[in-house]
Amino acid sequence: MAEKRDCYEILGVSKRATKDEIKSAYRKLAKKFHPDNKESGDETKFKEVQMAYDILYDDQKRSTYDQFGYAAFEQPGGGGNPGGANPFGGGFGGEGFDFGDIFNSFFGGGSRRQANPTAPRRGNDVVMRVKVDFMDAVLGRDITIPMNIDETCSACHGSGARTPHDVKTCPTCNGRGYVRMQRRSLFGTMESEEACPNCGGSGKIITDKCPSCSGKGYNRKKKDVTVHILAGINEGQQIRVNGLGERGANGGPNGDLYVEVVIKPHPNFTRDGNDIHINVPLDFVDAVLGTDIDVPAVYGEVTLNIPAGTQPGQILRMKGQGIKDLRSGKPGNQYVHLIVKVPTSLSKEQKNILESFRAASNPKDSFFTKFKKTFKI
């Protein structure tokens, strides 16, 4: 399969483009590539433009796309994208899609056809927040989420009827799903369209209900859902799982589940983007003389050289020892904040050694003496 072009590139807008700029760019390209345009019509490019618009004009989808790219909509276990179907749940290029509706809604061309109330409708998306351990977000893992899911009845395939012959056209609305109502008011007779009270807007009635779902067309089931936490995912980023949102109407597909990641704090590591910060205690002798120490890092211990004369609070960088970027795989850095520790009790031998050190030192070179010289008395 050919690699998809970047959505911003397709519409010819910058990554900071406003919704008005996105809509304007879409209008121009959709008009240019619309299949009804005999001069420049191109159905393939029109679908590509529509896909990019569906992603970038929706704030949630755009945020997800900016974080993960197309990979966010192709999660393992998320249903994939079989047969080139729309992976963004937008409703273009699939069954029941009418290019004319899109064209007319943006560019005129007569009154727009009223949406069919009996047509299958996709369910709403759902956002769920899940707490994960710090290291699970760094290394990635599968987690299990218990959920209650409305699944289309396998016996009636969502129709709610025992057999296809038990679904009849509603005699009240003649299958339209709505009826015209007239009401008298101070301003005269008001006419409006309302959902048919007999069929509830479906346009159909069931003479013999499906015994498996009692005519609902779906069954609620408890299900353990496995979600793959991507290695390197950050706080607030979302993972899309196909078909686990709210149920659709009239046999339409379910919406999608967006799992928003909340990361538990680590007792030692602090994350800043893909960089890691850690406080490391250091004996004062090692700070003075220098040494090599094995420092914990997110992917295992790494040897760090402590230069002689290291000062309290000094920060040393361990290049490439941070978290690998979710998209590029390039690692950040780890920053080691050195906390120099001074002992509160010494052995006699240690005291004698330090006394010898003090005796061998020139008092004029002491830090305190240099400090006092900065004051004029």
Question: In words, what does this structure look like?
Answer:
- The protein is of the alpha+beta class and 377 residues long.
- Among the domains are: 1-114, Helix Hairpins, CATH 1.10.287.110; 270-372, HSP40/DNAj peptide-binding domain (Sandwich), CATH 2.60.260.
- Helices cover 23% and strands 26% of the residues.
- It contains nine helices and 15 strands.
- The chain has helices at 7-11, 19-33, 43-57, 59-68, 99-107, 134-139, 284-289, 348-360, 367-372, and strands spanning 126-132, 141-152, 167-169, 178-185, 188-195, 204-206, 218-229, 238-241, 257-263, 270-272, 275-283, 291-295, 302-306, 315-318, 334-341.
- It has a four-stranded mixed β-sheet with strand order 10-11-15-14. Strands 1-9-8 form a three-stranded mixed β-sheet.
- Helix 2 packs antiparallel against helix 3 (43-57) and helix 3 (43-57) packs across helix 4 (59-68).
- The radius of gyration is 33 Å and the shape is elongated.
- The protein starts with 6 loop residues before the first helix and ends in a 5-residue tail after the last helix.
Q: Name the structural class.
A: alpha+beta
Strand count: 15
Number of helices, where a helix is a run of at least 4 consecutive DSSP H or I residues: 9
Q: Average pLDDT value? A: 82
CATH fold-type name of the domain at 1-114 = Helix Hairpins
Please write the CATH class name of the domain at 1-114.
Answer: Mainly Alpha
**Distance separating the two termini:** 81 Å
Spans where pLDDT lies below 50 across 5 or more residues: 75-114
Order of H and E elements: HHHHHEHEEEEEEEEEEHEEEEHH
> Could you name the CATH homologous superfamily of the domain at 1-114?
DnaJ domain
Strand content: 25-35%
| CATH architecture assignment of the domain at 1-114 | Orthogonal Bundle
> Which value, in Å, is the CA radius of gyration?
33 Å
Task: State the strand order across the main sheet.
Answer: 10-11-15-14
Biggest sheet statistics = 4 strands, mixed
